[in-house]
C-alpha cells in the first residue's frame, strides 16, 4: 500500500485534526496488516503456520473493524485519494 496515495483531500476539502489523521493512518496500517496476513496464509502449508496465519488475519480484521467504527463515530470520511500535508492540520 502506497502511503502517498492515501494523502489527498476529499472534494469538499475538509480540514482534519492531528488526531483524525492519526486514526486514518491507523486504519490504513490495519488494512495493510490484513493484506499481509492474507498473503502469508496463501504461502504457508504447515498446519501450525496455517493456524497462525488465520489468527493474524483475524486480529488484523478485528483491529480494522474497530478503527472503522471509531472513525464513523467521529464523523471522519475519506476516500482513496486522501492526502495528508502538515499544513492541513487544524
Q: What would your notes on this structure say?
A:
- There is one protein chain.
- The chain is mainly α.
- The chain has one domain (3-77).
- It has two helices and no strands.
- α1 packs antiparallel against α2 (47-73).
- The longest helix is centred in the middle third of the chain and has 27 residues, at 47-73.
- It is elongated, with a radius of gyration of 16 Å.
- Mean pLDDT is 79; it is low at 85-90.
Cα radius of gyration in angstroms: 16 Å
**Into which percent range does the helicity of residues fall?**
55-70%
For the record, the count of structural domains works out to: 1
Task: State the separation between the terminal residues, measured CA to CA.
Answer: 26 Å
Q: Sketch the topology as an H/E string, one letter per element.
A: HH
Shape: elongated
Structural class: mainly alpha
Strand content: under 5%
Enumerate how many helices there are, as a single number: 2
Q: How many extended strands?
A: 0
Provide the descriptors you would attach to this structure in a database record:
2 helices, disordered C terminus, mainly alpha, 90 residues, elongated, YaaL family protein, DUF2508
